[in-house]
Known about the structure:
The chain has helices at residues 16-19, 24-33, 38-48; strands at residues 10-14, 57-61. By secondary structure, it is α+β, with helices and mostly antiparallel strands.
Amino acid sequence: MVKGFLKDDILIMNSDGLTxxxxxxxxxxxxxxxxxxxxxxxxxxxxxxxxxxxxTVIIIKNI
Length: 63
């Protein structure tokens, strides 16, 4: 079932350079903690874990 983009929903778009090195749980928790700093922190985590591929992270929150 597909729902619309509801108030306070978070959309995370990223390359496999992130998901190959950072778990889905870590990505979700980082986005919930501080949505503005999350992309920077997630790229740092991926780089700290090896960072062998390009790493792209975009987070959008519906207000």
